[in-house]
Amino acid sequence: MTDLGATTPASLPAPRRDWAALLLCPVLMAAALPLVGSASSWVTLTAAGLAMGMMIFLMASGLTLVFGLMDVINFGHGVFISIGAYAMLLVLGPLAGWAEADSLPLNLALLAVCIVVAMAVTAALGLVFERVIIRPVYRSHLKQILVTMGGMIVAEQAIHVVWGASPVAIRLPEAFRGAIVIGDAAVERYRVVAVAIGLVVFAGMSLVLNRTRLGLLIRAGVENPEMVEALGYRIRRLFVGVFVAGSALAGLGGVMWGFYRQTLTAGMGMEVMVLVFIVIIIGGLGSVGGCFVGSLLVALVANYVGFLAPKLALVSNILVMALVLAWRPQGLFPVARR
Amino acid sequence: MSGGRGGVLAALLSDDGPRSRVLAVLLLAIAAGLAATPFVFPGSQPIGAAAKICVFIMLAASYDILLGYTGVVSFAHTMFFGIGGYGVAIALDRLGPGWGQVALGVVAALGLSCVLALAIGLISLRVRAIFFAMITLAVASAFLVLASQLSTLTGGEDGISFQLPGELRPAFRPFAEPVLGLAINGRVLAYYMILAVTVLVFLGLLRVVNSPFGRVLQAIRENEFRAEALGYRVVAYRTAASVISACAATVAGAMLALWLRYNGPDTTLSFSIMIDVLLMVVIGGMGTLYGAVVGATLLVLAQTYLQAVMAKASAAAAGAPIVAAILHPDRWLLWLGVLFVLSVYFFPTGVVGRLRGGR
Amino acid sequence: MSEPILRLEGVETRIGPYHILHGVSFDVPAGELTLLLGRNGAGKTTTLRTIMGLWRASAGRVLFDGRDITALPTPDIARAGLAYVPESMAVFSDLTVRENMVLAARSGPLDSARLDWIFGLFPALRRFWQSRAGVLSGGQKQMLAIARGLAEPRRLLLVDEPTKGLAPAMVRNMVEAFRQVKAAGETILLVEQNFHAASALGDDVAVMDNGTVVHSGPMRALAADAALQQSLLGLSLDQHQ
């Protein structure tokens, strides 16, 4: 994992990696090629699956991190996704010119501004949500589920109050519309953007979790918060920080998901929550790496199955979950706990 | 009526009376209101609301067996509700209107619900509450997708409209003369059938929670490890509870379908119904069963009539846009959501617990 | 005898409905190794956890260097200069040995001279430096837990039963390590069941029974008085010898 220490004897075995779980997606992609038959269809399906998976990962990563560290499950996480998406409207109105301009830098700048604004809004909301909704019910899962559902109901209605109840149509920035054609295969431009952003976020999170003291603290706190306190760290602040970061990530996911759907509704976050839950169950509750692999797995399977056996696609997510849990009941990357 | 003073009533209520004068009066008022609605409030809206209240009393009470008495959050409850609806709808649609078909539909639906509840219970009740909630949510959503896509069987998004047995049709007139000023027809009979089933199911559930079995459930809810240490097989008890709960929900779904002469994804399977049921049980009072009665009545009345009140209030506040917006009739759920959150924090035993003295 | 760095005055602790500590009082002098002895269930672990603020005293005071730390949050108690090695060891098994040590060194990068000293005490840690702590043996985890307590200079080290469940050879290593730590001038409060190991290490001793301290004084006096040992500790300790 880390190799910063200078005193590593060469003879030591490297930290063991869980190859079976890590190779799952590449093996699946390779296996799908002969089944799909045509290389161009395969490229299109794989790109679609990867893009979808990255977006699910963006939406799910915050939730799994919050669960891992705080043993808190936020069933209202979906509404942060919705609010992140709606927060874009604050930007898309005034900066409409940037979206229509046929200029990649300007379009990218617009996306960046959307992301920053959405993350700021959802982070602020996360701070309030943590204090008002969640803090009184730490340690009681039943109440957490109920109260966060309640918070979700109220927040969804608040979206209706602020932005109106009817769906809002948005347009992708000019440069992200259409598809890139490589040979016979067409890959939508926006999917490339989604994959890139997903990779950047995953790399960033991995870097923070594995290479910084903050990350070590989060991982240690997942395992034994009491010992982290006994070492002299204030875990309460860490909790709040992670919750706010998790909410901001949901906001980022909301922006990506909103542009993908091009229609915003207050319930859009909750609709995707089923996938999000499946993904974090598959990955192992609390594991960011597992969440990443799980997201890609679910999305790739959905795309391949949708092409090969459309009827089966309806329940492919559940099937994937059942198979993974039959193989590893704690998920792909079980997180050690106390 | 308050307290276990013996007698037929106490036996019917399994010696688990309202234990509060105000609550007893409230419950009597609800019961009397439901019994008298067709005679007292003419028109199709009141009787429709009353039938809906009956169905949701069954649904919420059965959900309370899980949430309040077993301490698990399931999001698959509407799946069983839907199975009941589809059972009746498919049987009557395919095999024609008749009581045999109704029975067949209900029995088949109960069978499917039992199997599914058993499977979900055995597979996932041994895991933690959070896991169970997520898995049931996933299963329920898969079922919703299946129901709306397998259109040859379920009618897809459009659902199934079907003919009722003759005795339940509006045209059926058992009496030549009006009774107490009301012309009795098949609709009225259907309503009273639903009311009777509701009373039976509710009293049955009351019996279940006050049986030794019900007490073990509550012991598990209070302290799972201790119950396990005492030798109770927690998973078996929880699974049995979820099967009972699923069956009651199935019956509720069948009754709704019979009332509406229709079943579809939106009427029985949608996530918003799940939310409604959560609101009913929590606001009414978890773990009391009577809470389901109060909560279902409150919510259905709010859905049906609160909007009208809010429309007036909103119009009155037209000068202040924000106030007008949050009082908009479509925002009734906003207020119930706030009430829900406050309930969980400040009166976790809901209206019923409050009336019984804050216990 | 030097000034006490830690003083407990009539500390009472309740866990849920159970009243565990009934007025615990004793001193830990600076620069010495104080042993906390007693049978299973006497309240030794609860005493350490109460000092760290992991359980709250319902009465009495914990004074550290003259300052009342009874009501401080756990992280602040740790920052006052206490290091805690719990009975369960509580190493972060998902983190490497190095990462465990990095977290233990709160104020900055690990000091390499100090690290060499720790490696001298526990050579296995050098060998497994980059391994996940979860793959270590029980004895190695215990070493890591103690090493974490030593990662930076602290004013008082609280250690809960470091020899529990260890093989005899490992117990000897552990005793030797503590002798060196003590020689380096650290102040230690050590909970121990193994009287043999304990008597070789301790300067002072406090014996607990039923949630109170029933005897305290120099270790030498207790070690020389077989009758007192018998009356205070019974046979439960002797079986370890």
Characterization of the model:
The complex is a heterotrimer of chains A (338), B (359) and C (241). Chain A is mainly alpha-helical and 338 residues long. Chain A has a domain at 37-169 and 183-266. Chain A is built from 16 helices and four strands. Residues 1-14 of chain A have low confidence and may be disordered. Chain B is mostly helical and 359 residues long. Chain B has one domain: ABC transporter involved in vitamin B12 uptake, BtuC, CATH 1.10.3470. In chain B, 73% of the residues lie in helices and 1% in strands. Chain B is built from 17 helices and two strands. Residues 235-241 of chain C have low confidence and may be disordered. Chain C has two domains: 1-81 and 155-241, Rossmann fold (3-Layer(aba) Sandwich); 85-154, no CATH class. Helices cover 36% and strands 27% of the residues of chain C. In chain C, helix 3 (97-104) packs parallel to helix 6. Chain C is an alpha/beta fold and 241 residues long. In chain C, strand 4 (57-64) and strand 5 form a beta hairpin. Chains in contact: A-B, A-C. Chain A: The chain crosses the membrane at residues 19-36, 42-67, 79-96, 108-133, 145-170, 190-209, 238-260, 272-301, 308-327. Chain A: It holds the Pfam family BPD_transp_2. Chain A: This is Branched-chain amino acid ABC transporter permease. Chain A: InterPro entries: ABC_transp_permease, BCAA_transport_permease. Chain A: Belongs to the binding-protein-dependent transport system permease family. LivHM subfamily.
